[in-house]
Design goal:
Elements lengths: L35 H15 L7 E4 L6 H15 L3 E6 L6 H13 L10 H15 L2 E7 L2 H5 L3 H9 L1 H4 L4 E8 L12 H4 L5 E4 L5 H15 L7 H13 L4 H17 L7 H11 L2 H8 L3 H12 L5 H12 L3 H13 L3 E8 L3 E8 L3 H7 L1
Parallel strand pairs: 1-4, 1-5, 2-3, 3-4
Antiparallel strand pairs: 6-7
Helix pairs in contact: 1-2, 3-4, 9-10, 9-11, 10-11, 11-12, 14-15, 14-17
The structure holds adenosine-5'-triphosphate.
The site of adenosine-5'-triphosphate has 20 residues, from α2 and α11.
GO biological process, one term: DNA replication
Keywords: ATP-binding, DNA replication, Nucleotide-binding
Family: Belongs to the CDC6/cdc18 family.
């Protein structure tokens, strides 16, 4: 047997990938198809900002991986390059309180962090608005994954401050784009009435891509990311089918392509085959889960771990195990249960237990080994 790779075998210095970077999560696609109406409405809402007025507020909703963040980022990049508008995106998974949101705005606007010794919210707020007024700038804030502010009961306060900024600080002009991927959450309905009375956003819906659209979008990625001929039509169709199966989240498809490419390389093959995709799917189907678990705090992760180890048990028993491990009390425990339920990591349902009345039963929504592996 010769050590020489054959014609259809990859040598050590070769790859199926032309540019693996296009499969990374922070890659901003060069073409953005099938989102024309959404982009138009977003542009229409932001246009007043370019003229120096307060833009229309927006709520962008839709299932995960349907291009909401990307749409905003593309427009924000254009605004930054071509206008004087200040456009800042805040990831509310990371910054999930009003104070954290405004600290992020401060850091982006001033280019340095607010004092770490801590300043009052009022000060933080007025420094931001003073600067906007002084420079006659309009600020557009994208609250990405705004649903997390609701889970922490911080949404009303945050929106109220942003939306009433011009009243508290004359001349300040701020517009808000709220992005939510929690379809069970009625964003407007869940806000306090004082906020509802000033918040009448344009609503933009990002529907799930259908199979043809998924193929069309992923084909583009394949052409940029792989060498010619490495991914055939049937393989791409299989990737699109799996993506549909996972709720149409394009992240699944993109992750599948990358992993399938790596599997092909492992076999030293120049082309990706169906078997590479099947094998990749065992991991790629968990991209949602990994993303959600990745943003949890230590105590939230600790609770997920306890639940994964005691799946299906009553909440009371799980509380004891959680309390042993973290020393946290029942109120915080209950809050975390609600958040994990809203995130779709667990289901908390009430059951009637003979002789003990109603009790909550906690069930993981994913395979417990898959959860434990990713914590
Ligand atoms: N029309 C499209 N063309 C090319 N790539 C796209 C398109 N729509 C989405 N993507 C890609 O899919 C991935 C997920 O998109 P994005 O983060 O914008 O979704 P999202 O709706 O904001 O998701 P979530 O609600 O979970 O935050 C990104 O890698 C993005 O590049």
């Amino acid at each position: 047997m010769s050590d020489d790779p054959g014609d259809d075998m990859l040598g050590w210095d070769e790859s199926v990938f032309r540019n693996e970077h296009v499969f990374e999560i922070d890659y901003l696609p060069e073409t953005f198809k099938h989102r024309e109406t959404q982009m138009e409405t977003l542009k229409y809402s932001l246009r007043p900002a370019v003229r120096g007025s307060r833009p229309l507020n927006v709520i962008a909703r839709g299932p995960p991986g349907t291009g909401k963040t990307t749409a905003t980022q593309i427009l924000f990049d254009e605004l930054r390059a071509q206008t004087e508008v200040q456009a800042v995106r805040v990831n509310c998974q990371v910054d999930s309180t009003r104070y954290a949101v405004f600290s992020r705005l401060f850091a982006e606007i001033f280019d340095y962090e607010p004092p770490s010794s801590g300043i009052s919210f009022k000060k933080l707020f007025s420094q931001i608005t003073d600067r906007l007024v002084e420079r006659e700038e309009v600020l557009v804030v994208a609250l990405d994954d705004v649903n997390y502010l609701f889970y922490e009961s911080e949404a009303s306060d945050t929106l109220y401050s942003l939306l009433r900024a011009h009243e508290a600080h004359s001349g300040a002009r701020i517009g808000v784009i709220g992005i939510s991927s929690d379809l069970d959450l009625d964003v407007i309905d869940e806000l306090d009435t004082r906020v509802q009375s000033v918040f009448r956003p344009e609503e933009i819906y990002f529907n799930k891509y259908d199979q043809t659209e998924i193929v069309d979008i992923l084909r583009e990625r394949v052409d940029r990311g792989f060498h010619e001929g490495a991914v055939g039509t049937q393989v791409l169709d299989r990737v699109a089918e799996f993506t549909e199966e996972q709720g149409g989240d394009l992240r699944v498809g993109i992750d599948l392509l990358r992993r399938a490419g790596m599997n092909a390389e492992m076999r030293a093959s120049r082309s990706v085959e169906a078997q590479d995709v099947e094998k990749a799917y065992d991991k790629s189907k968990y991209v949602h889960l990994s993303r959600r678990l990745g943003e949890l705090t230590d105590s939230e992760s600790a609770l997920v771990e306890v639940i994964a180890e005691n799946d299906g048990e009553r909440a009371g028993d799980i509380y004891e195990a959680f309390n042993d491990q973290t020393d946290l009390g029942y109120t915080r425990y209950s809050e975390i249960i609600n958040k994990l339920d809203q995130l779709g990591i667990i289901e908390a349902s009430y059951t009637n237990v003979e002789g003990r009345g109603r009790s909550r039963e906690l069930t993981l929504q994913y395979d417990s080994d898959a959860v434990l592996e990713r914590l």
